[in-house]
Amino acid sequence: MASPSASTETTEAPPGPSEPSYGALLSQLRTTCPTPLLPPSKAHTPSLTSVIASLALHPTLEAALHMLNHDLVSAHFLVRHMQAPPAYEGMLLHAILHRIEGDYDNARVWYRDVSRSDVFRHAWGEPRDGDDDEGGNQGGNDDSDEDENVDDDGKKDNDRDLDKVVTFLSRVQRLKQTGASQNHPSSHPKPPPQSIPTTAPSPSPAAAAASPSQCQSPAADEHTHLISHLTSQSQRELDRVIGWCDKKFGHEPWLDASDAWVRPSDKIRKIGQDMVTGGAGFRKF
């Protein structure tokens, strides 16, 4: 007969798979998801939304991971709580988010609002003495131009950096207007047909059997190169913002993220309300 103690014993279920660490998840997203340049149709991996949230990261890092996963809705929920100084990191992410959404006019406003901040200089400027490639030099104050250099045209560092962003935005906007797709080269719009002399010889059997990628016109090659170049710029920007936020806030759990929230100005709050309920914005919730 079994003893009473034996009859009440239970077998513990084996532990389930552990959640990935911040570093492992960041590496996974960078490897499997192209950094968004044009508006994605949906989250790349919907199941990662809850995984990212479970890490309880600082809201800037959580929003950035959602953006890497193409989950713009989750990212926007977070950055809308960080739309005024001193939350410059959240404001810059807000600019990037509008740019990815294709809301370029709104993106330009947000970029301009943060163009004098240290995180913007780190994302778009040239490295300064004491900077590293990820977190930069975070000893200075935001919204200050005391240490800026002035070029021969009288432009300060932040003005030149903002010019670079404006040029980048314009190129991305023109690309989107062509109907290009970032992730599927086969769906990129075809360039205008090249004029072909009527006396051109027929292609050889070997040429006819060549793959389409080997037969692309110079215009198609240039178009593909443009997408690759702009995607690299998008990736560099987001990577540098992530590195900055990681160094500034760390990636340990923030059990109370309320310290990261800021109260928006009446103007920003009114704009946000009009976007949500008045149909005045690109997004309609």
How many beta-strand elements?
0
Distance between the termini: 66 Å
- N-to-C SSE series? HHHHHHHHHHHH
Let me know the average pLDDT.
77
Count of DSSP H/I helices: 12
Strand content: under 5%
Q: Provide the structure class.
A: mainly alpha
Radius of gyration: 24 Å
Contiguous low-pLDDT stretches (5 residues minimum) are 2-16, 184-201, 207-213
The shape is globular
Main sheet overview: none
Bin the helical content: 40-55%
Structural commentary:
By secondary structure, the protein is mainly α. The protein contains 12 helices and no strands. α6 (about 90-100) packs antiparallel against α7 (about 105-115) and α8 (about 120-125) packs antiparallel against α11 (about 220-250). The model is unreliable at about 1-15, about 185-200 and about 205-215 (pLDDT under 50).
Task: Provide key terms for this protein.
49% helix, mainly alpha, disordered N terminus, 285 residues, single chain, globular
Short description:
The chain has twelve helices and no strands. By secondary structure, it is mostly helical.
What is the topological layout?
Elements: H1 4-7, H2 22-32, H3 48-54, H4 59-68, H5 72-79, H6 88-101, H7 104-114, H8 118-124, H9 157-177, H10 205-208, H11 218-249, H12 266-277
Helix pairs in contact: 4-5, 4-6, 5-6, 6-7, 7-9, 8-11
